[in-house]
Amino acid sequence: MAIATISAPRALYIHIPFCTNKCHYCDFTSYVLKGQPVDEYLDALEREMERTTAELPPVQIDTVFVGGGTPTVLTPPQMKRFLADVKRHFPLADDVEFTMEANPGTTDPEKLAAMFEGGVNRISFGVQSFDNDLLERIGRIHNVDDVYKSLENARAAGFTNLSIDLMFGLPGQTTATLEDSVNKALALKLPHYSLYSLKVEENTLFHKLYQRDELPLPSEDEEFNMYIHLMDRLKQAGYTHYEISNFALPGYESRHNSTYWRNEPYYGLGAGAHGYAGRVRHINVKGVQPFIDYTKTKLPRLEVNPVSEQEAMEDFMMVGLRLLEGVKASSFARQFDGMTLESKFGPIIDKLLKDGLLERLEWPGDHGYKLTDKGVLFGNDVFGSFIGLDENSDS
Fold it and tell me: Of 115, 148, 333, 372, whose CB has the highest number of CB atoms within 10 Å?
């Protein structure tokens, strides 16, 4: 496909791969900060921005998400320089949602001021738990006091759009300790909460412990009950369950993450970052020094993979049904040259409707499907129903 025919993404993801330490469960592209060439990495990021925008010129960026790692390990001068680079290379919408991930304890007033002045208007704090013993057990370096202080500092700096992550299914965690964390989280009256279950990934300390049978995880039934408790508590507190793992007050849903869930294109910059445009996905090289070296002569691509129409349709259903509003037939037809959901996935949809996992929605001139309450609890089974179908099959 000629580059000129590709619609420029309106979402931008940038990866800052540095952390103060490596959490026991983390398999993201991240490296302990000490001794890392941070300024050289920022130089390389700017080169990638320049090459990226030359190859696929942006029109308008509606959402920016800076993830990691822990982007807030950057010093205030580094933060100012980085945010200025973003603004120089990408035209940001007046109402851009500009999110930065942060670790409690890494956001002092000077750094928050640099973030606010540089255009960041949403912060997602990786809190994970309000239990200090549990935080230590999973390798977090912050404590509960750091959480309160960081949120206090953020509000004092002018931030109002704040989110925190909580985790469940952690080793040694009980429903009672989770309840306590949820109560303390809700007492903060934040506009957004993300709630994730632990996944034991390869190349992590937890995976090694798991293989040695030294990781005391809750049973599947306990983890299931934790999820139900979380859903109930957040809904009771007035939050909309808008995505499998995310809850928000009206108007505070993550616009950037919704780009992924709607299978829309996005720029992806930085070591290990993924991007998607023109039905082509790329993955960048992961090491810090290799990333720096690549950008001196070319874009730092590790892999560039065309996405077939079949795979794109499967992705549309798999990620779209994560949103509790569901998928619309009109959106599917727009992405896939007028094809209908039923002509492609009719038998699968019928079975999921019969099993009580999906329900049909109707609007004037349109229709769609969404997870039922039962479907939310068995989401992975629903998503998996749409994956790996025969390319030549209509069902």
Answer: 115
